């Protein structure tokens, strides 16, 4: 688990300025890899690497890593959990290894099989830059659901790439400008964080992106997408019993958790009172008997600590509470925004950073979490509400005509536009957002079409909503996980997002995900053998944080950077401040965005913003 940085020259050879930029980029990424660093360059390419040692801590596993022949180079961030199986296959084909790391297996697989064959075989979370000197091609790749990041910028003479935007911004002469389109979409609550940058000129490699860069330009591909691999016959023709599905899911979960427990370092779990993290904790205990867990314990509002400790007692895992009061929140919120490279739109961002920092203080480098379960197994309220909407007879009559459906679908489907601060009618706002963000907003339509053959229509709409959330809501969560875990040099692993588990879940029929008013029906059936009944039956609340944590901070908006960027008038700004005073979600998003601009454009410090938050909150009391 690491940070990577690179400079590719389109024409002229790599020079001293490029090598200096690599140093700057690596300094900006130091938090991602405090254990070691290395660099490599040839005439066209310069690479830098920051290392957090998880598997094979020996110096032989340092990066950038070269093949024995020297004509293959890898700069890699992540974990490929099936590396031992891949290694056996490569050894059977005559290859030899000098380390026990997954890095060398990834390098040898890419060099021996070629990226287009090798990458789909990788089971894990990863992003990497691989250079093949035999044909002069640079390959950039990201795992199938975008767990690990890759940012890219294309200038007149260079291609810059790194694990985080801030590394690209550190390059000499690269302009620090905000993309106002992206600011608008985030303020309208669009899910953008993992795949789109707020900085002008910086883009993100998409999930499952596999880009080939040569002297002729960039060839952009993807090696996996739900639209491409979905087998409708498996869903529509499913006749497996509930017991059979539960047995399969139990086995897949055990296998995935075992893979995710592979580490030559200490490992723990994030254990809330919910089903997802609780189930991961219960299964991980079998493979790591010494395991302990963490739960955030906010000192304002509701705390999940008591529910989490009920799970801990049931599965025999001790839990450590991570306390979070308002002073600590004000300290962490600006730092979370700095690492996220977007607004800290949820109070739980500060809580996750507090948890990661406690892990690091305790010597824990790897933390297992339960993210991905709700998207795969149907855990969100809005997924169920989509199904209820589509059961209405008038909507079914409309959709008997495909031509009419194509004209009307966008107005009738569930829009991701929620809690918007925009003005005008909902239809007007929704249409405006579709024009701004067509790549996401039309995906659900495509998914609905792809599920043709699934009946009734309400089931089809429900499954389309679940699959859509893999590319919308989940992307925000994964971005948060990577940035805030690595801010404290802690690797967060997500066992639910293992290849075979993903394939199993996306091909489940609706009745295995939502039945009799129960979300995540099948997963809860499996969890019944591991977790307390009270925790399984409890209503899903997400990670709720009291509005009192951020209360009174809306006056920070008078600082003017966000107002200037969005061209709000004085009266519009005061209206927004009034709204933020009473509406927590808007307050977090607006104040978070103001802090983002102050940090990256205004040059302010996180410590200075902590003081400003205290001052604003104090003036409101």
TrEMBL record:
Keywords assigned: ATP-binding, Glutamine amidotransferase, Ligase, Nucleotide-binding
Record-stated family: Belongs to the asparagine synthetase family.
Keyword Secreted included in the entry's annotation: no
PANTHER family xrefs: ASPARAGINE SYNTHETASE, ASPARAGINE SYNTHETASE (GLUTAMINE-HYDROLYZING)
Molecular-function annotations in GO: asparagine synthase (glutamine-hydrolyzing) activity
Catalytic activity: L-aspartate + L-glutamine + ATP + H2O = L-asparagine + L-glutamate + AMP + diphosphate + H(+)
Entry EC number(s): 6.3.5.4
Functional pathway: Amino-acid biosynthesis; L-asparagine biosynthesis; L-asparagine from L-aspartate (L-Gln route): step 1/1
Protein's name in the database: asparagine synthase (glutamine-hydrolyzing)
Domain Glutamine amidotransferase type-2 span(s) in chain numbering: 2-216
Key word ATP-binding present: yes
NCBIfam families hit by this protein: asn_synth_AEB
InterPro entries from the UniProt entry: Asn_synth_AEB, Asn_synthase, ASN_synthetase/amidase, AsnB_N, GATase_2_dom, Ntn_hydrolases_N, Rossmann-like_a/b/a_fold
Coiled-coil portions: none
């Amino acid at each position: 688990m690491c940070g990577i940085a690179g400079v590719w020259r389109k024409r002229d050879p790599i020079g001293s300025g490029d090598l200096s930029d690599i140093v700057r980029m690596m300094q900006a990424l130091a938090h991602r890899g405090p254990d070691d660093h290395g660099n490599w360059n040839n005439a066209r390419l310069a690479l830098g690497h920051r290392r957090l040692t998880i598997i094979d801590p020996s110096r032989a596993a340092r990066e950038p890593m070269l093949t024995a022949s020297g004509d293959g180079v890898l700069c890699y961030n992540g974990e490929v959990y099936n590396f031992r199986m891949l290694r056996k296959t490569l050894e059977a084909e005559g290859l030899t290894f000098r380390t026990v790391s997954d890095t060398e297996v990834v390098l040898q697989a890419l060099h021996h099989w070629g990226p287009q064959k090798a990458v789909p075989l990788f089971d894990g979370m990863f992003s990497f830059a691989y250079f093949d000197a035999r044909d002069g091609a640079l390959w950039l790749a990201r795992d199938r659901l975008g767990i690990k990041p890759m940012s890219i910028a294309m200038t007149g003479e260079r291609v810059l790439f790194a694990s985080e935007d801030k590394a690209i911004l550190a390059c000499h002469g690269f302009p620090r400008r905000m993309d106002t389109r992206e600011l608008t979409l985030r303020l309208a609550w669009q899910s953008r964080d993992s795949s789109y940058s707020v900085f002008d000129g910086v883009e993100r490699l998409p999930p499952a992106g596999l880009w080939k860069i040569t002297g002729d330009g960039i060839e952009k591909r993807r090696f996996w997408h739900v639209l491409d691999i979905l087998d409708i016959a498996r869903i529509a023709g499913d006749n497996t019993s509930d017991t059979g599905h539960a047995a399969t899911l139990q086995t897949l979960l055990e296998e995935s958790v075992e893979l995710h427990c592979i580490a030559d370092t200490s490992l723990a779990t994030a254990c809330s009172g919910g089903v997802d993290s609780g189930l991961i904790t219960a299964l991980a205990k079998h493979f790591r008997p010494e395991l302990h867990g963490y739960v955030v314990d906010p000192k304002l509002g509701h705390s999940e600590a008591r529910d989490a400790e009920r799970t801990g007692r049931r599965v025999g895992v001790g839990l450590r509470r991570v306390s979070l009061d308002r002073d600590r929140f004000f300290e962490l919120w600006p730092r979370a925004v700095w690492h996220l490279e977007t607004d800290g739109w949820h109070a739980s961002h500060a809580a996750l950073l507090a948890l990661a920092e406690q892990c690091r203080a305790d010597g824990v480098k790897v933390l297992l979490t339960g993210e991905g379960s709700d998207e795969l197994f149907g855990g969100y309220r809005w997924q169920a509400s989509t199904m209820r909407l589509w059961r209405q007879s008038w909507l079914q009559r409309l959709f008997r005509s495909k031509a009419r459906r194509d004209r009307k679908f966008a107005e009738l489907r569930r829009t991701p536009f929620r809690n918007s601060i925009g003005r005008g009618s909902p239809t007007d706002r929704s249409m405006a957002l579709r024009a701004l963000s067509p790549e996401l907003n039309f995906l659900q339509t495509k998914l609905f079409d792809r599920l043709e053959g699934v009946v009734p229509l309400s089931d089809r709409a429900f499954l389309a909503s679940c699959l859509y959330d893999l590319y919308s809501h989940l992307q925000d969560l994964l971005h948060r996980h990577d940035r805030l875990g690595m801010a404290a040099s802690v690797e967060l692993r997500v066992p639910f997002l293992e290849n075979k588990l993903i394939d199993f879940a996306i091909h489940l029929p609706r009745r295995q995900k939502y039945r009799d008013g129960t979300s995540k029906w099948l997963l809860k059936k499996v969890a019944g053998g591991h977790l307390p009944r009270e925790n399984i039956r409890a209503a899903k609340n997400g990670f709720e944080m009291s509005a009192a944590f951020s209360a009174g901070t809306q006056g920070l908006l008078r600082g003017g950077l966000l107002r200037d960027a969005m061209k709000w008038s004085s009266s519009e700004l005061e209206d927004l401040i009034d709204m933020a005073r009473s509406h927590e979600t808007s307050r977090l998003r607006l104040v978070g965005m103001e802090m983002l601009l102050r940090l990256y454009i205004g040059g302010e410090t996180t410590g200075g913003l902590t003081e400003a938050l205290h001052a604003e909150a104090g003036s409101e009391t």
